[in-house]
Design a protein that fits this description.
The protein has 537 residues and is of the alpha/beta class. The structure holds glutamine.
Length: 537
């Protein structure tokens, strides 16, 4: 049983400073130094989880093995640390309140007035310590979403204050991530916003042990002295975090800045073995020095916000490096596609990916893109909704079932080739009610998918309500679209692949969630390989 130590990460001055990447980079370094480390994200919004959020709000919804719908930062944690996260790694205010209110209804507070302090803060403190209490981790890093000063974050900061005090200084520390803006007109870096932000934090009783300063320019000695003086932080604990070419450079930059040493010192933990990060550096060097370039079209309806497809674009970075290929993504809005303009808009692509999604907006454009990939023998990967559209396109244009559709888009279609799952028919609530999390899938002998995974049984993560309708299975297979992966228990079709095509695969699950730097996903690796072959012929 390990005695867990805690690191809290707060953000100041502005949002979008990359707290998740700093937390993941620190965790990576601590992991490399032999400390088992995990990261948790506390989100101050009132939704129970981001599952019901439009991707335009906070980007992609990430899904864990145990079926939690979570913030996209958990994707970064998994991609950096190469270990799975779970429901316990993401907590929202909504969930905290829900559980306190449920306890109140059960009478667990014995007639007391239920208040933010101590009831909400106790619940937050319990959630923070859930991962520590498993005994699995030496260090738990807790990232507090939002920016200090936000009304919503106050109970979290208060809980951090209490925990820092209760756990003691050797067992828990606080890192504040802040921005040092550069004023071009004055030619100067400015510390004032950081002074203010630290002051706000101190008003809540939290004094940062470490400042990580996001900056476009190197921090001079005098800037560090000033920050140390005004913010009560030791000079060596003021860490520069300069803009990086890629997020994957950040662990190396933090190593150079000794963030891990500063943290271990403060937590009174020894550090002997300096991280070599050999495989990480190998990945980075391949990523930065590609031998070839391919262009893949990402067809989706949220393409204006690239974060909506974060795990997919990161999976291409991992798979690209593995193939020594630069994957250029052409972001294509499915709403703008028509049968007439598809040849020009998709012209020159080496691969086409039809993305996951919900609802009918832009759906015909996705189907047109599938048709173009199928007919022109362009490597094609359909994920979740993308797989469903591949089935619909095939039913309409090969089997001639003219109005074939998913009943998600047309409940009255005469040919519901994609149907609502039986157990979904009585579901009314939207949140947390899809088929979620990791499910087994059995791959068919002699299929392309099996040759890619080199495994008979795979586990992949799901997030959907609709499924391939097995009433159409034999008709579809006989015409050449094979169901090459099925759920071994329910026989639900999880993978389809086209026989007479160089590379055409649709998967009902989300392979992108399981791609990491050290374990690029085999399906993405093989897809990129196929696009490379396409580009060379
Ligand atoms: N909307 C589809 C379904 O619910 C696909 C979901 C997805 O792409 N994640 O089945």
């Amino acid at each position: 049983m390990k005695k867990t130590k805690y690191v809290f990460v707060t953000g100041g001055v502005t949002s979008s400073l990359g707290k998740g990447i700093i937390a993941a980079s620190l965790a990576k370094l601590l992991q490399e130094r032999g400390y088992s480390t995990t990261i948790q994200k506390l989100d101050p919004y009132i939704n129970i989880d981001p599952g019901t959020l439009n991707p335009y709000e906070h980007g992609e919804c990430f899904v864990t093995d145990d079926g939690a719908e979570t913030d996209l930062d958990l994707g970064h944690y998994e991609r950096f640390l190469n270990i799975p996260t779970s429901q316990a790694n993401n907590v929202t205010t909504g969930r905290i309140y829900q559980s306190v209110i449920n306890k109140e209804r059960r009478g667990e507070f014995l007639g007391k007035t239920v208040q933010i302090i101590p009831h909400i803060t106790d619940e937050i403190k319990n959630r923070i310590q859930i991962l520590g209490k498993t005994g699995e981790f030496d260090i738990v890093i807790t990232e507090i979403g939002g920016t200090v000063g936000d009304i919503e974050s106050l109970p979290y900061i208060e809980s951090v204050r209490q925990l820092l005090w209760e756990l003691g200084h050797d067992n828990a520390i606080s890192i504040h991530l802040t921005l040092i803006p550069y004023l071009a007109a004055a030619g100067e870096l400015k510390t004032k916003p950081t002074q203010h932000s630290v002051k706000i934090l101190m008003q809540s009783g939290v004094s940062p042990d470490v400042l990580v300063c996001r900056t476009e320019h190197k921090l001079t000695d005098s800037i560090k002295n000033k920050l140390a003086l005004f913010c009560n932080v030791q000079k060596e604990a003021i860490i520069e975090s300069i803009d990086a070419e890629t997020i994957y450079d950040v662990p190396l930059l933090m190593l150079k800045e000794k963030l891990d040493e500063v943290v271990l010192n403060k937590l009174q933990l020894p550090y002997n073995n300096k991280p070599s990060l050999t495989s990480w550096k190998d990945f980075l060097s391949k990523h930065k020095n590609p031998k070839y370039t391919v262009e893949i079209g990402l067809i989706g309806k949220y393409v204006e916000l690239h974060d909506a497809y974060k795990s997919i674009s990161e999976a291409f970075i991992h798979a690209g490096a593995n193939n020594e290929v630069k994957v250029k993504l052409r972001w294509i809005h499915s709403e703008g596609l028509t049968p007439e303009n598809v040849p020009s808009k998709l012209n020159g692509l080496n691969g086409i990916l039809v993305a996951p999604g919900f609802g009918g907006r832009g759906i015909e454009g996705k189907i047109d893109a599938v048709k173009f990939a199928r007919e022109n023998k362009i490597p094609f990967l359909g994920i979740c909704l993308g797989m469903q559209m591949a089935v619909i396109e095939f039913a309409r244009n090969v089997l001639n079932l003219k109005d074939a559709f998913s009943i998600e888009m047309n409940p009255d279609t005469p040919h519901p080739v994609i149907n609502l799952m039986e157990e979904q028919k009585t579901v009314v609530n939207k949140g947390g009610t899809m088929r979620l999390g990791s499910w087994k899938c059995k791959l068919e002998e002699n299929s392309k998918i099996k040759s890619i995974y080199q495994q008979e049984i795979i586990d992949e993560r799901h997030r959907h309500r609709y499924e391939f309708n097995n009433a159409y299975l034999s008709q579809i297979e006989n015409a050449g679209l094979k169901a090459s992966g099925k759920n071994p228990k329910t026989n639900l079709v999880e993978v389809v692949e086209l026989e007479d095509h160089p590379w055409f695969i649709g998967v009902q699950y989300h392979p992108e969630y399981k791609s990491t730097v050290l374990n690029p996903h085999p399906l993405f690796v093989d897809f990129v390989k196929a696009t490379l072959e396409h580009s060379l012929t």
